[in-house]
C-alpha cells in the first residue's frame, strides 16, 4: 500500500491489489481448459481414458448424446476438450444438456442438505453439494466427478515457490486475499454447518476439498444465463477458450421446455466458428477479463497485450478536512469513498479517473469548489483541469506511485522478455507474462502523466474558463480591461 496526496489537504491511497471477492455480486464464470494426463490423441477416433468413455456412456443413457451428436470429448493441446465429429457451421447447436443434470442451487435445494444450506450464499451451498456428491458412490453425477481434475493452473493452487515468481504483482496480493477468503468461509461452514450436521456429512471434509470445489466453481460454472447465475453443466464445461473467438454473445443459452411432454429446460451450446471434422470447438470465456483474472480463474493467460491491466485504487481519506463534502460529491456521481479503475494496455484512461483524482487532491485555494453552491456542477468542472497546483499534484503523486510499484518487481521487463524465449513450465510462463504486462502498464501510466506535466503551462484552468464565460478574458488568455491589475 502506498500513501499518496500526503502533501495536500486531501489524501488518497493507491493499493497494489484489489480484492475481487464481494458479496454484492457473482464472481463465478466459465472454465479453464484442464490438463488431461490420460488422453493420447486427437481426431474423430479419439483415445481417451476409461473414465471419459464411461462418462460418455452415461450421457448416452441419460439421453444427452446420441449418434447424431456432432462433438465428442477428445485430446487437444489444452488437455481435454470437445472435438467436431463432422463439419459444423457457425452458430450450429453442438450439444444440449437438460436441467435435471445441472448442478446449481436448485439441485442443492432438492437434495438432503437443501434445508441446512438454505441460508448460505449460493456458491457456498453448491460447493458443499459438490464435495458431498463426489464422496457418494450412488451420486447421479459420479461418472462426471471421475473426469474432473484435482486442480488447475489457477494461482490459488500454486506453491509458495511458484507464487514467489509473482513478487510485486497485483495478482500475488489478490491470490493471497482469495485464499484467505476461502479459508475463512470454510472455517465458518465447518463450525456452523458441517460439524453440527455430521449425519448429512458423514465423510470428513477438509480445506483441500473445499479449495477443490471452489476451483471447480471458479473455473467451470456458467453465468449470465436466464435466471441462472451459477450452474455447472456436465459435458458443456469441457469446451475450451480461444482468443480467435471475438464475441461471447449467443454461444450458449437456455431453452425450455425440452419437448412437447417435458417441462425440463435445456442448456444449448452453439459453435461461434465454422469448423471442419477434427477441429476443436471453442468459445470466448469473457472479453472483459484481464490476463490476471484469466490466471486467477482458469490458470492461463493470452499473449494479447490488450488483456494486460493494472488497477488503480483511490480513496478519500477520513482524515481529509473536506471528507464529508468529497464523499457526497463522489457518491452523487456513482463513486464512493474508495474507487477502482482498471487501466488496460493501449486503451484510454477509464472514465471518471481524472475527475476522481482531482476531487481527492482538491484543497487550498481550490476548496471553494466544494461549497454547496457548486454541488450540482462540480463534477463537470473536475472533468477539466481545476488549477495548475491541483493538476501538478496528481501528476506527481501518480508518477511517484508508478515508480514505487515498478521497484517492487524482482525482474526487469527486458529480463522477462528474455525468459519468455526459454521453455518455461505453464505456471512460470503465466508469472512472467503477468509481471511483464503489469510493468508495461505502469510505464504507460507514468508516460501519460509525464506528458500531462509537460503540458501544464499550456492548459486552461477553471479560473480562466470562468473569466471567459463572463466575457472578461480574451481567447489568448489575457484578462480584459482594468480587471487585469488584480491578477
Order of helices and strands: EEHEEEHHHHHHEEEEHEHEHHHHHH
Number of domains: 2
Question: What's the gyration radius in Å?
Answer: 27 Å
Q: Strand content of the residues, in percent? A: 5-15%
State the strand order across the main sheet. Answer: 5-8-7
Between the first and last Cα atoms, what is the distance in angstroms?
41 Å
How many runs of DSSP E, i.e. beta strands?
Answer: 11
CATH topology of the largest domain: set domain protein methyltransferase, domain 1
Count of runs of 4 or more consecutive helical residues: 15
- Low-confidence spans: 1-44, 483-487
Shape: elongated
List strands and helices in order, with pairings.
Elements: E1 2-4, E2 12-14, H1 50-61, E3 71-76, E4 79-84, E5 93-98, H2 105-109, H3 122-134, H4 142-145, H5 160-163, H6 170-194, H7 207-220, E6 240-241, E7 252-256, E8 265-270, E9 282-283, H8 291-297, E10 309-315, H9 323-332, E11 338-344, H10 353-361, H11 378-382, H12 388-406, H13 413-420, H14 426-454, H15 462-469
Parallel strand pairs: 6-9
Antiparallel strand pairs: 1-2, 3-4, 5-8, 7-8, 10-11
